[in-house]
């Protein structure tokens, strides 16, 4: 097999908080041939996720930090070019831990699942059928326990997960209200993502009052991707026996030392809340079922998915910071050129 | 029926935070005869509970504030002297909302349950068979979901609820460690309440380090009656998928404005915690079953109950503050003289 030139985006400096372009380097080197039991994948789309901030940092986290000098950890979807593993054949499309690079030589355990053949575009495997759609589906239904007629509040409602939560809430017969950072995103979320009302938190002088105005009857479920002042205000609008789903903590760029906020324990007690953390990697066994159900909803036109695809690996280094600035519309990813 | 002199402890001033003796007045007046459908109860024991702080205050709470000029809201156990309600007869012993007073004229809905006839002393209906024992039982088993071999941390471990949680944890095959405010209480809790180890938080220079030393493998369940800095440290020792039971918030005397603390949302997320609030009054339907099970354990000598009984109604006004100073050993109550 002829040697191919690989392009990789490597983590070369340890960020404190949000990783910026200067923490990465674009490197070109030949691809090694796959060894015994290995596969060679050509990536088509690379995922940009809020969780990458945590992976790049070196603070107590739910997965080990990315070693310096290696390609940034990332989900990707690609095609198998060569296989020395019996369970994969060239031409198969797969989704998994293939990193920020054009080519990936790895073992089969990096593959999370084969791509479900459908009329959906390949990029859908990083959005509605990827971690975002599956996170929304499993967290909302698993921890949220939604019942028809319940009231749902969602932070980063126009974001990669929130855009699905609003739609799933509507499908479940709930009334969903979202929080977002611009009037454009608010309009988009109302038009496309199932939200009955939206709050632009950057324009709200009093966040608590803005939420109470949009949710006059309080909330049964708060699906939170941010934490911080939005969560402080939101949990103070919860109805009795409300469920708070902590799915991300994007509001704080650094957790060492722990930022301060108003204590929640009295709210948890008096409102009898159930506040749970959700991390998708605990739920790999439920993955295929969720993806199949989401594909069905997407193909039936019941759930839409918006993607912002940046053309070329050179956009990867600044993409996480872009995500945290809230500049993306829908799921942010990189098309490998 | 001859008129009886009633002695009442009335709330006469609205506290901000912990109610002290000066917020109450001891008043004597004749008891009215029970009207149609009413019962007359002679109280034997009156309960002193941390929740009375909230009932006396006028801040958003899980029950309406006690009106000024009325007997302090309290659980009590007593005997029916006269009944104009068909379901009760004189001589029956009952447990319910009879207030800080010797005699109570009320309607049957103030009765929570009849006293279970047993060899246990009547006061046990305010401790192991009262709100404390039942709270420990239902919160620990209902929200804690304990499994044999799991590690349990309990705040106010020598207190009215914590003294049962340690014993129930031990019966469930768990390893329990408790937090308390003195060496005496620590010794008592180790000797009598099922705790394998105890932490005197007043002597711990670094609370997190003290908990990690006593719980080197972390904790699966944190049963919290305090909130505040103890909870901050405790949740940072939780194992993956740990359960935090918020059963009280005694560490903070006032919640307006909300006191500040280190934000918990990152811990909830990365440790996949489930943090739930428990209030016993949501669980009246499970009450009889829990009391029967606890009576069985108490009669079999598998669970002990310590009570501190103050002799005479005149001790009631200062008793809530005494509880918050942590001076009691076991369940604090008043014997009506």
Automatic annotation (TrEMBL), chains A, B:
UniProt entry keywords in alphabetical sequence: Oxidoreductase
InterPro entries tied to this protein: ADH-like_C, ADH_N_2, ER, GroES-like_sf, MDR_fam, NAD(P)-bd_dom_sf
Gene3D superfamilies attached to this UniProt entry: Medium-chain alcohol dehydrogenases, catalytic domain, NAD(P)-binding Rossmann-like Domain
Short name of any one Pfam family annotated for the protein: ADH_N_2
Chain segments annotated as coiled-coil in the UniProt record: none
GO MF term set: oxidoreductase activity, acting on the CH-CH group of donors, NAD or NADP as acceptor
Domain spans labelled Enoyl reductase (ER): 17-334
CDD domains with a match to the protein in the record: PGDH
SMART domains: PKS_ER (SM00829)
UniProt protein name: Enoyl reductase (ER) domain-containing protein
């Amino acid at each position: 097999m002829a040697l191919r030139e690989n392009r990789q985006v490597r983590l070369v400096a340890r960020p404190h908080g949000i990783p910026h372009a200067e923490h990465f380097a674009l490197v070109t080197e030949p691809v090694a041939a796959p060894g015994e039991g290995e596969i060679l994948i050509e990536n088509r789309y690379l995922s940009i996720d809020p969780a990458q901030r945590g992976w790049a940092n070196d603070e107590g986290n739910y997965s080990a930090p990315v070693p310096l000098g290696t390609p940034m950890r990332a989900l990707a979807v690609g095609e198998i070019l060569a296989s020395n593993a019996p369970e994969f054949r060239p031409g198969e499309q797969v989704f998994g831990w293939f990193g920020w690079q054009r080519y990936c030589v790895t073992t089969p355990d990096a593959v999370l699942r084969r791509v479900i053949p459908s009329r959906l575009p390949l990029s859908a495997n990083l959005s509605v059928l990827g971690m975002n759609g599956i996170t929304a589906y499993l967290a909302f239904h698993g921890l949220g326990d939604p019942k028809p007629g319940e009231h749902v509040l969602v932070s980063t409602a126009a974001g990669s997960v929130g855009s699905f939560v609003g739609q799933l809430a509507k499908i479940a017969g709930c009334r969903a209200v979202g929080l977002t950072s611009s009037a454009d995103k608010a309009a988009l979320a109302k038009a496309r993502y199932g939200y009955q009302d939206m709050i632009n938190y950057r324009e709200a002088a009093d966040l608590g009052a803005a939420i109470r105005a949009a949710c006059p009857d309080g909330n049964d479920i708060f699906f939170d991707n941010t934490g911080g002042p939005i969560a402080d205000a939101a949990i103070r609008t919860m109805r009795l026996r409300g469920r708070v789903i902590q799915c991300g903590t994007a509001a704080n760029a650094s957790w060492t030392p722990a930022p301060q906020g108003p204590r929640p324990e009295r709210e948890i007690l008096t409102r009898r809340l159930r506040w749970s953390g959700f991390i998708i990697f605990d739920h790999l066994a439920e993955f295929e079922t969720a993806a199949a159900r989401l594909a069905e909803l997407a193909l039936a036109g019941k759930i839409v998915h918006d993607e912002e695809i940046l053309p070329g690996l050179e956009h990867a280094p600044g993409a996480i910071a872009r995500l945290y600035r809230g500049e993306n519309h829908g799921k942010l990813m990189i098309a490998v050129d």
